[in-house]
Specification:
This protein is of the alpha/beta class and 292 residues long. The protein has helices at 3-14, 41-56, 72-80, 101-115, 133-145, 159-167, 192-198, 218-226, 231-241, 254-261, 270-279, and strands at residues 18-20, 26-28, 32-33, 61-63, 89-94, 120-125, 149-155, 177-180, 203-206, 245-247. Bound molecules: NADP nicotinamide-adenine-dinucleotide phosphate.
Length: 292
């Protein structure tokens, strides 16, 4: 690696915000998503290069799932982190249709094989399906006892569901709830996010760029241009300001990765935050959790 590259990477690492999990372990507030990665041969090498460049910049939390490309995303992540496993905080997810006690254990083994590793750092129930939460939780606790996973969590659970999960024996140790959260999807600010904060459970904001739709948002583009940043940097910097929120944008492209990494150095003052509130108003009433 050329020295100039290292010299560039260090300041970024120095300004990486971290978020404490309930166990006290700290993870980077800016990570990397991988949905749709590994689906096309033509873009595979660039996707791997982008993920590795993300690691160089300290975006060590990598989020994947058995669902993504039917295992193709996990395979690509396994290749991207090969030789660098200890740098990475690896997140994967079990599908609700596999989330029985036995099914979860099998799904985890399959994910470990595709990821070419012996442990997943954080294993999530992808969303609530027909299997009782207590049964999935039992499997997650067993996986943690055997060292196959280090932490467990959930995804797409609205307030009533996460309350139910945390009231189960062991459920209070849930390490995150990964949910849709971005400037255009602020519903969780009404009740779910304050509840998670009170319990010191980090939220993990997925689709932070609203799957690139925010990048094209005319109002956000104007705001960004007037404030010397790009729309993607504004969207990510706004999420990074929020307490207890981990942010996992996906890009399979090194140029866009560099642009997104710069969000770590993008500050937003009170008047800029007010302008964003005017463009994307906070919720005025409770709303069911949205999913993508
Ligand atoms: N738990 C769940 O149910 C759930 C649901 C959805 C997502 N997720 C996780 O969250 C991650 C992120 O969400 P997401 O992938 O849905 O959406 P996202 O991160 O909001 O947006 C990704 C899209 O934005 C593009 N993009 C990224 N940076 C850009 C930039 N600087 N300029 C222009 N375009 C840019 C990407 O294209 P390029 O790659 O071509 O740059 C991609 O099309 C996922 O990858 C996945 O790991 C979880």
């Amino acid at each position: 690696m050329p020295h100039s590259h290292l010299a560039l990477a260090r300041p970024t690492l120095a300004c990486m915000k971290t978020i404490a999990l309930p166990s006290g372990e700290k993870v980077p507030a800016l990570g990397q998503g991988t949905w749709n990665m590994g689906d096309r041969t033509a873009t595979r090498a660039e996707e791997i290069a982008a993920l590795r460049m993300g690691l160089d910049h300290g975006l060590a939390l990598v989020d994947t799932a058995e669902m993504y490309g039917d295992g193709r995303s996990e395979k690509l992540v396994g290749e991207a982190i090969s030789g660098r496993r200890d740098e990475v905080f690896l997140v994967s997810k079990v599908l609700p249709s596999n989330a029985s006690r036995r099914g979860t254990l099998e799904a985890c083994e399959n994910s470990l094989r595709r990821l070419a590793t012996d442990r997943i750092d954080l294993y999530l129930l992808h969303w609530r399906g027909n299997v009782p939460l207590a049964e999935t939780l039992e499997a997650l606790l067993a996986l943690r006892s055997s060292g196959k996973i280090r932490h467990f969590g959930v995804s797409n659970l609205d307030l009533a569901d996460i309350k139910e999960f945390t009231s189960l024996p062991g459920g209070e140790e849930v390490a995150t709830n990964q949910v849709l959260y971005n400037l255009s999807r602020r519903g969780i600010e009404w009740d779910l996010l304050p509840w998670l904060r009170a319990k010191r459970i980090p939220a993990m904001a997925y689709s932070p760029l609203e799957q690139a739709r925010l990048v094209e948002h005319p109002g956000l583009r104007d705001f960004a241009e007037n404030n010397g940043m790009t729309a993607s940097q504004a969207a990510l910097a706004w999420l990074l300001v929020q307490d207890g929120v981990i942010v996992i944008p996906k890009t399979g492209n090194r140029k866009r990765l560099s642009e997104n990494v710069a969000a770590l150095r993008t500050t937003l003052d009170e008047s800029q935050l007010k302008a964003l509130d005017a463009l994307f108003p906070p919720p005025k009433r409770a709303k069911p959790l949205e999913m993508l």
